[in-house]
Structures are given as structure tokens and as C-alpha cells.
Design brief:
The strands form three sheets. Strands 1, 4, 5, 7, 10 and 11 form a six-stranded antiparallel sheet that branches. Strands 6-13-12-8-9 form a five-stranded mixed sheet, with no helix packed on it. A two-stranded antiparallel ribbon has the order 2-3. It has a single domain, classed as Immunoglobulin-like (Sandwich), CATH 2.60.40. It has one helix and 13 strands; from the N terminus they run E-E-E-E-E-H-E-E-E-E-E-E-E-E. By secondary structure, the protein is an all-beta fold.
């Protein structure tokens, strides 16, 4: 479930790299030049995170490939009732304890266009345990949220919010993205 940061060119041709001398991950484009961080892609104090909502039901097969393979996820834009979307949260470079263990926590929230919160989970375990590979690789967090709108759910823009925390470094990354829901 890891991917080298150079292979994150998943949804917008963007990747993250950790230069050997750098203090914090810097998100870079395919040309190697830094790109501006977004609401769904941030880094702070050496910890990086990204949030993606995809319509790919085969997201796991796309992710579980050799590290040099770049997964090509189709972002959820506007989906009809009944169409599944999957919320994927990625992280890189968590601070490891003396045993090589990471402790990445997250708050998960989905908010409808009517401001009603349909999912609100606090302090979930996104990743806990040993990082066998390079901590600068890109990792997929454990909670992958599956969502589909039902008839009667409000149409419009649904917001996904994730606060990704490196509990050992005491760093938070508030990430946010959205998708539209429409009637069939």
C-alpha cells in the first residue's frame, strides 16, 4: 500500500517529492517544479497529506501496483444518485518512534449542500504501526470512505473534510475537497 512520492501523479499530474536536504515535503508537478498547495494537498513541518474523491470502483487494484506504476484515478466531479464515490486519504513522512512506528490520526466529515453533516468521525486511526519502507513514500490511510447519494438526498455540492494528524509530530493538515450530486 505504498507508493513512492514521485509516483503520485494520480489526479492532476501532480506529485510530491522529498529532496534529500529538505525539511518538509514539497508538492511538485511532473516537470519537477514546485506547485502551489491546495485545499486537498498540503504539507507542514515534514508531514504531507492529500485527499482525493474518485469514482473508480477498482481504486484498490489501481493502488496495489508496483511502486513505479502511476495510478490513474478518475476524480469524482458530479455523480448521479446511486453512483459510488470513494474518499482516499494519502500521507507521507510521519514521524516514527524508536521502533519505526507511525501514528497517523484523522477526523472525517462529509457535509451536504444543506450543511447537514452525514459523516462525522473524530480521531480515527488512519495508520498505526510499523512503516516497513521509506517513510517518505506515499501511503494510503486505512479508512477509505464509500459514499453514494440516495433519492431524497439534496443535490448540489457535497464537501469532504479530513483533518490528518501526525500524532507523534503534533502536526495537523486540514484537507478539503468536494463533488457534486445530481438526480439521474
Amino acid at each position: 500500500m505504498k507508493r513512492t512520492l514521485l509516483a503520485l501523479a494520480v489526479w492532476a499530474g501532480l506529485s510530491a517529492v522529498m529532496p534529500a536536504q529538505a525539511q518538509a515535503p514539497v508538492w511538485k508537478g511532473p516537470d519537477g517544479k514546485p506547485v502551489q498547495e491546495t485545499e486537498s494537498m498540503k504539507s507542514k513541518d515534514g508531514f504531507a497529506g492529500a485527499l482525493l474523491v474518485t469514482v473508480d470502483e477498482d481504486w484498490r487494484a489501481k493502488w496495489d501496483t508496483p511502486p513505479d506504476t502511476k495510478p490513474d484515478f478518475k476524480m469524482a466531479e458530479t455523480v448521479p444518485y446511486g453512483k459510488k464515490v470513494f474518499v482516499l486519504t494519502f500521507f507521507s513522512n510521519p514521524l516514527l518512534d524508536a521502533q519505526g512506528n507511525a501514528n497517523v490520526r484523522c477526523d472525517l466529515q462529509i457535509v451536504g449542500p444543506d450543511a447537514k453533516v452525514t459523516l462525522d468521525q473524530k480521531d480515527a486511526t488512519c495508520y498505526a504501526g510499523r512503516i516497513a519502507g521509506n517513510p517518505h513514500n506515499l501511503y494510503l490511510s486505512a479508512p477509505v470512505i464509500q459514499f453514494s447519494g440516495d433519492p431524497g438526498d439534496p443535490v448540489g455540492i457535497w464537501e469532504v473534510r479530513v483533518v490528518l494528524r501526525d500524532a507523534q509530530r503534533h502536526v495537523e493538515l486540514p484537507l478539503k475537497t468536494s463533488f457534486g450530486l445530481k438526480e439521474k
